[in-house]
Amino acid sequence: MGSKAKLRGHLSADLQHGETIEVITVAQLKQGMKQHLGKNLAAGVAAGLVTTAVTGGGSLFVYASIPAVWVVVTSQRVLMYAKTGSASKPGEMVFAAPRQALGAEAKSGLLTQVVIADRDDGRSLVRLNLGLRRKAANRIVLSIGG
After folding, report:
1. Average pLDDT for residues 31-39, to the nearest whole number?
2. Which chain regions cross the lipid bilayer (predicted)?
């Protein structure tokens, strides 16, 4: 059994009756979105600061790691789980919203990103970085109904 099949098995516990998975992919939460996802993100996914002392001048560089999440679009909802070290086991759920309440738009530049917004007021809820995976971004947008 492949890791995606195992992942689907783990996710099935969170699915409602009749709900089916349409898209599963990994993305990074864009910088600044961590605060919008509340305590769950802070507790489960929050990026740690890695401080490295650079030899030679005693300078300090601070690198803020952007958390990776499993993005799961189902027939009814958009779910995001913290990505753990296991390829087939999701971490804590950090985002869940009904699909019909959301809109999505892909933005392509050097890297591809998806902005998921509140359909009513257009307010950005989550920005995802998908790197060079334009097809994955387009599948998310088409599934949500951007």
Report:
1. 49
2. 60-79
